[in-house]
């Protein structure tokens, strides 16, 4: 086997579920703060390449299906709920800590955005990076968790491509 050994972790699944819950709570706290401190559509420059914004996204990543008429809210809630429940089940089985961390990050982000879609009907985005008029689409902590966790899992699979049953 190449890379680092993928032995079973000793941490209980409740640790990973707890970390995911804390990430979702931090995400929700930040979103509530943005909603209370900034008007919708506002933008506050923090530096030459970063703004805090108050944006609403009724779509998925990069506003995919944002103008679909409202039905997408229910689709995204069902998909996020299915992903979250699957990740809860995955984390219940023994995993190496690094693999569990990747799943945990994705779970925390999925739950954070699931709460938004369920309660608000949209996701609150507030991080806006830009350079010379080019803006990356606004995003939030939940998005960071999802992308970081998925990227981490991808790197782990490349470093140690053992089958999941052997991890």
Descriptive overview:
The protein is of the alpha+beta class. It has one domain (13-160). It contains 4 helices and 4 strands. It has helices spanning 13-37, 71-92, 97-119, 141-159, and strands spanning 43-45, 50-57, 123-131, 134-135. A 4-stranded antiparallel beta sheet has the order 1-2-3-4. Strand 3 and strand 4 form a beta hairpin. Helix 3 packs antiparallel against helix 4. It is globular. The termini are close together. The mean pLDDT is 85. It is a multi-pass membrane protein. GO terms for molecular function: aspartic-type endopeptidase activity.
What value does the Rg take, in angstroms?
A: 18 Å
Q: What low-confidence regions span 5 or more consecutive residues with pLDDT below 50?
A: none
Element-level helix/strand string: HEEHHEEH
Percentage of helical residues?
A: 40-55%
Percent strand = 5-15%
Q: What best-fitting shape do the alpha-carbon axes yield? A: globular
From the helix content, strand content and strand pairing, which structural class follows?
alpha+beta
Distance between the termini: 11 Å
């Amino acid at each position: 086997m190449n890379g680092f050994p993928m032995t079973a972790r000793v941490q209980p699944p409740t640790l990973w579920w707890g970390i995911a819950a804390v990430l979702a709570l931090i995400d929700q706290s930040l979103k509530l703060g943005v909603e209370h401190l900034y008007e919708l559509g506002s933008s506050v420059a923090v530096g030459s390449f970063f703004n805090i914004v108050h944006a609403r996204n009724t779509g998925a990543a990069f506003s995919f299906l944002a103008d679909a008429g409202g039905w997408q809210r229910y689709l995204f809630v069902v998909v996020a709920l299915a992903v979250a429940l699957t990740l809860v089940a995955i984390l219940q089985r023994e995993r190496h800590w690094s693999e569990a961390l990747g799943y945990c990050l994705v779970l925390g982000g999925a739950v954070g955005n699931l709460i938004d879609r369920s309660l608000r009907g949209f996701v609150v985005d507030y991080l806006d990076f830009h350079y010379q008029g080019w803006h990356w689409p606004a995003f939030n902590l939940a998005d960071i968790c999802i992308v970081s966790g998925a990227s981490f899992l991808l790197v782990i699979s490349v470093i140690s491509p053992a089958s999941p049953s052997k991890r």
